[in-house]
Amino acid sequence: MKNETTYYSEAIDYLLTFDGITKDVLDEYTNKKKWEQRRPNDMKELFKRFLHHAKNRQGMPNSIGYVDKLSKVLFSFNHNKVIANYKTWEDVFDAIQDSKYKPPGRMEKYNNRSHWVQYCKSIMSIANFISNYKNLDEWNEFVNGFLTNEQSKLALPLLLKEEIDGFGFALACDFIKESVSPQFVKPDVHINWIAQKLGITESEKDYQIFKDVEKYCNEINELPYAVDKILWLVGSGNFHLHDIKINCSREDFLIKKSENSPKCICG
């Protein structure tokens, strides 16, 4: 570690230099109580959150469109009714194709690379997976069993990666971070790049980057969810909760940081 404890606060200061970005705005993305307010409060909402993250893959959102528009086909996001009425992903595919919903992307049933084929497989695997839990209390009891220490915590995204069709490690972390526990980060393109450039990690593998960034969060005593959000906002500039898009970049952040702190790693 090379004087990394200031990186998080410097990222916050960088974002605050942009018009419209205030501490109150940032608080919406980093405050644990705000996160709690957005947590799923029933199994239908949990199912819907899973479905939202299942399409959070490169190019897929543009093909799938809004998850809410699948409500009728998915019985108002009742996973038990989905299982009772559809036996395979093909059944889900046919039901969507026959519905009034006209998705933005082409539906090609016999193309295994089709986003809709992949997404329908995810829908069925998610429904089957969460059917193991009678209610949200049982689900919470299940996930809380993984949150007892750093090693067991790592097992949860690895489990979801195996259970949910289309979920990789990073996507599983993204779902957990947003809907299960704020004690997680998602090793995505922005987090990985910034963490590597700052020297928080030397790895290029999501699993190790996750561990290194989590270690950094512990050392600076900050909520992993908050650190994730700040670094992601530096990279994306997308303040989606406020419909604000700023012209920032991770490269610009490192340049300005280099100017203020010549000893930082900006290569």
List keywords for this structure.
single chain, 267 residues, mainly alpha, 2 domains, two-stranded antiparallel ribbon, globular, disordered C terminus
Q: Could you explain how this protein is built, in words?
A:
The protein has 267 residues and is mainly α. The protein folds into two domains: 103 residues; 137 residues. Helix content is 58%, strand content 1%. It is built from 15 helices and two strands. Strands 1-2 form a two-stranded antiparallel ribbon. It is globular and about 60 Å long.
Q: Roughly how many Å apart are the termini?
A: 16 Å
Low-confidence runs (pLDDT<50, min 5 residues)? 262-267
Tally of strands: 2
* Mean pLDDT rating: 93
How many separate domains? 2
Rg value = 20 Å
What does the overall shape look like? globular
Indicate the percent of residues in helices: 55-70%
Gist?
Helix content is 58%, strand content 1%. By secondary structure, it is mainly alpha-helical.
Summarize the helices and strands and which ones pair or pack.
Blueprint (H helix, E strand, L loop, with lengths): L6 H9 L7 H8 L1 H6 L5 H12 L5 H5 L14 H7 L3 H10 L16 H16 L5 H9 L5 H14 L5 H11 L9 H10 L7 H15 L3 H13 L1 E2 L4 E2 L4 H11 L7
Antiparallel strand pairs: 1-2
